[in-house]
Design the sequence.
């Protein structure tokens, strides 16, 4: 049993609310336990400079927290005048994850902006962002598809992400909350497709190195978590014909 | 009748949810029609440089919108590397309004950080921020008071804010939504106490100058709106003994 | 009698010097008592990005103080790398005030840059900036008109601004100097046209709220001040045929 | 055979030159094929703000490229006024890797600054930086140790890093050069200790997802690479008594 | 005869107005022809970080132009968010020039801020700044001296600066105005003491290299110019007992 | 004899290594004693905004030091978010020096970026940068010439730079190293062509003013130094037909 009463391989309660705000083409509130992230997908009719004239689209991601999403108030990045390294790392990760399941050529010369704004942070904000943003992305692409049908539906697969780790008590645990995360010896974030293949594997020995055997147990556990998350995504998106047919 | 079906002196539906997030000392979601703002109040055990050693406290305010709070996605201020003029103007206004009803000497050498993060913007975000932030501020000060009772309770009065204006059709209207606001000829924001006195009066002739008579009708209307808002604040805060006794 | 020997409704000595510097299309030194501001109007043959291709013009305003315009040297905004909130608020106010009396369509696709640089600050720099910048603006538009006559003269009315307030001694006073301003209980800036209508009303209860009656007396006083200022503008511009004919 | 003539599990030629520049406490030029990085370790007699007064030390890392280290000149980050996301990600990785093998308590209240400046970039600059910076770090700590002997020698283990990947031709390859890296389907960076345990595992499906089997082969290969690199580090540091005795 | 009607060795009319603004400890308007610079000297009761606790003072210099000091409006450095290279070069030059004639030890732990704000720029703004700022500096130090007499008067000598150059017509000319400066083949700025010794010599072959003979003629001419300027400074400061006694 | 054992008019050992890195069109390592600078020249097929459409080329220069090029680690300018005044001054000097010997019209609409990155700084980095960058520039232009022969070879002359000064012991010395430079009373940097004419003369009385006679002796010495440097450049470039034929 963990300090939060969960079993080692037990995820927190997940809730995905679509159409959370009214303006964005895709807008999702994802709640994983007390972690709450608003994920929006916005369509812009142009691409970044480096892609101009190539007929391809782009998915750009930004991540932020409201200042009191955390236990101690964090100074706003707009006040500090710059985005910090952790934020950059996370928004790059979200971008890679989502782009990996989208056919950017099929999109045409458009940018989809993904914004993940953390309202409450209790561990796992980056994996919740990926999981929630994917649903917002599907909604936005669906909206585009209803306007002017894509020749080829641009989304190739589901993608979700989960954290796993080795706790202070040397237990292998799934879906770490904030306290577990801050004390974990080993910390991993795993991004997966619905086929159970890896998009991204990031593991760090925060307090000590880890062995190949430990890595293997952690990867097994992440597979279980991601399966559950993709099932939740499918349920939330159930009426989405084109994607779930896949 | 207005385009949104309201009467000229009719406000939108107001909802104030306290304890909206779990970490902040005060945390309020205020909804005024489709305008939604998360207002948090955070206590910091020090004051800004210019107040050090004077025994006084400070109330610092920041305001932001998530990028897709608006119809068209707005570039993040953290990505642009600077806070724009509109944001600065708003956070200065919120700060002045809240400080006007707090006895900063009674606070002691502490800063209360007020963060107003707009989740959905449908007009009147700055007035909603003041009205909601006041409730968060009371909760935070109340929490401080429960820990170590203030000699003198620092909040001196209620404060709320409302917008009034003259519409495209030359009607005097209360609580403008986004469409009304963008077409208004005259636009005012009025901050008031529970005694019906003014803290701040800001009126702009956006499309034409306005007369003294027009100003008077607008001020009358703002009084009606602010009365309703303060009634809502009192209802939301009902168990707050010290303040409502006042 | 006030601490500076003026009567309650007495303005400081006003002096408007046109053609103060030699390069700008309009260049005015305005002195209101010891407050001295250089206001220049510069014509640029293009408009900001958001107006391109719409045939309209723009009036852009910037405000700054030289570091020792004030009693204590103020760090340069260029050294700090950003413009502070007060400056932004002021330059936005000046811009709104001047644009309110100009027909931007009649201007054509041009920007007129208004720069207000405070040489010496003894209270009322924002209102002096508006009053002086209007004269520089007329000179610049006049110069354009001499080159290629406008179909419709773009300036629709005079505009000036004045401060009024309630002093530490609870007297209602006109045109506050620095010491009066820093101690005032209520502080207002009022922007008006020559017809005595309002462009902008900004009043703040700095030390206490204010009543409707107090507001009314302050507005009366501001009317007196603005009338005097517009008379000074007319005198300074007397040979300007097109405007004064209006 | 690869396009560069190497076998699949063959690393490029590695050369580690100690004392490359004369001022730094540790200064190493590491060359891995045509990738050349200057790694310096500098001792500063204080710690960052967040560690003050706790008796612990810190290792801070910065990474940069000279503008023409790359095929196309890259704009200097100092000219752009900010550090980009890739740089931040890399310097955070280097920092975590080095801190993982150092006992920061044993260091005392000192910061060791690690600077990795890429002179020529032909793939694998982040892994070369880790491998080279470790040697510079040992030299700096050794110098500290000669001045005032540590009670406990602060370096606990060797650490090195290598890249592995799956090429365009679906071959599993070790130590990717720039062309291989830009075309790789799967790209991994693996940081290891001398015991063959993991400090950090980062794998990305750049062009397609990857399976558990592929991951396993890649990890095997990285073990081979890191063993060779640590052998090179040991050889370079051979006279370093305290470390190699371990 | 030059295009401006001056003889080759003829300076423009120089006017030095002391006490130009009322707050600064020293405040000078220097006019050299149409070039006008406000130079203020402000005393701050602390020194920059790098001098703390050493008992020495510092002279810090900043230089700026109001946007329309020039023929074409220059974007404000505060709006651009950074100071440009030309400005930095000039303020470093002014600082070195003034510090060279002041005994910083005699000053004590104080900073004198020199601000040179160009109101109108018609060539030679950096040399006018040095010449005018010196007078403001003397006034500020004199004011300090009247409060608490220095053991040793900190100003050791007069300092002034002038520009010389070789014109488009290959004439050697003194005190270039803007047109001459922009067309000059060779351009020099020479900073001198009252003894006719050099503090700084900066010569640039803008359009062609220059010979030793040309350099010599230019230096002769600069001596004549600086003598006149120092005579003007002495005249302006005539009642300043301590300095002129020297 | 100097503290470093050199005679007063003796330069340090100079070594110029061409093709130091593999990507840049011109790439030189210049070593002057312990001062080491990597100078690269990169061709960009466009010109800065202010030159567009005029058929001319441009030479843009940037200068930086790796953080531990110096005795005490210098904070990276990219971390500080801005380039400091010394750096700006140096890169402007290098730019002027190189542009003075190139016919920018003959270049066509191209920019040659010169990057001088100091690896080790032991005095004279700006003069070493000019001397080394010239060789890199010739190599880059030569490469352009081999692709598409210039009608007129754009390089008009050699250019080099050297420092001279008056030491603490009042000796006139050539090519100051770091210790000499930090203690020098007078410090000069002289940029010259192969004909012995001046491109730039910059002399500063760091600790005291200097006389015309001292200036003359310093200039004589700089001529000797620059002759040696241009001889080294010619030797390094010997196979460069077009230039050395000149």
Sequence:
């Amino acid at each position: 049993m963990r300090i939060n009463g969960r079993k080692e391989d037990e995820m927190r309660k997940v809730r995905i609310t679509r159409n959370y705000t009214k303006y964005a083409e895709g807008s999702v509130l994802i709640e994983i336990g007390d972690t709450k992230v608003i994920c929006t997908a916005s369509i812009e009719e142009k691409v970044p400079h480096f892609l101009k004239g190539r007929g391809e689209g782009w998915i750009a991601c930004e991540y932020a927290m409201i200042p009191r999403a955390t236990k101690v108030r964090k100074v706003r990045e707009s006040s500090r005048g710059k985005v910090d390294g952790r934020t950059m790392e996370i928004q790059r990760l979200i971008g890679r994850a989502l782009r990996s399941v989208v056919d950017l050529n099929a999109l045409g010369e458009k940018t989809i902006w993904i914004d993940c704004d953390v309202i409450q942070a209790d561990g796992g904000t980056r994996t919740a962002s990926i999981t929630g943003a994917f649903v917002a992305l599907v909604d936005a692409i669906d909206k585009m598809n209803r306007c002017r049908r894509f020749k080829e539906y641009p989304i190739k697969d589901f993608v979700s992400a989960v954290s796993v780790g080795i706790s202070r008590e040397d237990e292998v645990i799934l879906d770490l909350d904030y306290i577990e995360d801050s004390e974990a010896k080993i910390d991993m974030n795993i991004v997966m497709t619905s086929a159970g293949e890896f998009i991204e594997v990031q593991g760090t020995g925060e307090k000590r190195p880890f062995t190949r055997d430990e890595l293997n147990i952690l990867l097994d556990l992440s597979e279980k978590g991601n399966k559950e998350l993709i099932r939740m995504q499918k349920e939330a998106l159930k009426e989405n014909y084109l994607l779930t047919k896949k």
